Amino acid sequence: MSHRVGVIAGDGIGPEVVAEARKVIDAAGVVLDVVDYDLGARRYLRTGEVLPAAVLAELAGLDAILLGAIGSPDVAPGILERGLLLELRFRLDLYVNLRPFLAPPAVDLVVVRENTEGVYAGEGGILRKGTPHEVATQGSVNTRMGVERCVRFAFAQAESRARRHLTLVHKTNVLAYAGDLWQRVFDEVAAEHPDVATAYAHVDAACIHLVETPERFDVVVTDNLFGDILTDLAGAVSGGIGVAASANLNPARTGPSLFEPVHGSAPDLVGTGRANPVAAIRSAAMMLEYLGEADAAARIDKAVAEPGGLAGSTSEIGDTIAGRV
Ligand code: IPM
Ligand code: MN
Fold first, then answer.
1. Ligand with smallest separation from the Cα of 224
2. Fewer C-beta within 10 Å: the chain N or C terminus?
3. Which residues fall inside 5 Å of ion ligand 2, going by CB?
């Protein structure tokens, strides 16, 4: 059975790392029915379109989406990030952003980042703009449904792992309302999962733990913004952001899920051969696993982790991994 996969190679190093991911998928023997989408800075600068409704409707009918990177110095910050990346997360209801980090012996953790709410929801506004009395507010949206479905996913994730340990990361000492909801939902769902050991850490302390004692973490569940920041840090302590993969999941499978490296478009690396394709390759492995190609996914993960290291240019690293699978 072939899988219909939309590829959004995107901007900057996106096309370079996606090419390597596709090379490795081919080497693993998985045949995909690929549809390429021209989305990102080039299309926006050419036509003014960010995510046309017809394209979104088409993407919604696919089995999965593989994305390279979005963003360009030629486009004002936020237009593509909010208009394309966040729009896809919201409209396709990709409510979990799953980000695994592995750097033996200390780091073997996965962050379950809520992906549709929090400050990312865009609540707020500016009043009296440009006057001395202007006011900017940016609310954090936390619905019981949104928090609960994310926390439930995290408990299931913890149950599927050997350690069965789940840490809630928040800032309940200051964020009294949002923190209260997260903590109550977490405790309620925990009561249904006596087999999962739980812990709590404030987000600032969690940053110290990630650097000093990352082995304490197994599965971490947190809100959208904390998850964004924490996963860059987790990447930095486990081989760098060039190897950090992510899955934006619609666990209900009412539509496709989207797989992308945690890193951005890195315009300074374009054409230098210095872009690390490992994050895109590991994201592709997560996609194959999600599509039911568990064997190919495991072979790719094993090839990436194989001792002997991965050196060379973008395409040389791709060749090495493709050779190993
Ligand atoms: C990420 C990115 C995005 C985010 C940006 C580009 C909108 O940093 O996927 O982590 O903040 O979620
Ligand atoms: Mn980020």
1. 1
2. N
3. 228
Alpha-carbon gap, residue 200 to 186, rounded angstroms: 10
pLDDT tens, position by position, 84-110: 999 999 999 999 999 999 999 999 999
Residue 241 Cα to ligand 2 midpoint, Å, equals 10
Measured from the CB, is residue 85 less than 6 Å from ligand 1?
Answer: yes
- Rg over CA atoms, the chain: 20
pLDDT by residue (tens digit) across 272-300? Answer: 999 999 999 999 999 999 999 999 999 99
Give, in order, the Cα–Cα distances in Å from 280 to each of 235, 255, 290. Answer: 14, 21, 15
187 is catalytic: no
User: Helix, strand or coil for residue 254?
Assistant: coil
Q: How many CB atoms lie within 10 A of CB 138?
A: 12
Q: Whose CA is nearest to atom 10 of ligand 1?
A: 228
Tokens found for residue 125: 């506004």
- DSSP class of residue 103 equals E
Q: If you measure from the C-alpha of residue 239 to the centroid of ligand 2, how many angstroms do you get, rounded to a whole number?
A: 16
CA 211 to each of CA 38, 75, 97: distance values in angstroms, whole numbers, following the listed order: 39, 34, 22
302 is catalytic: no
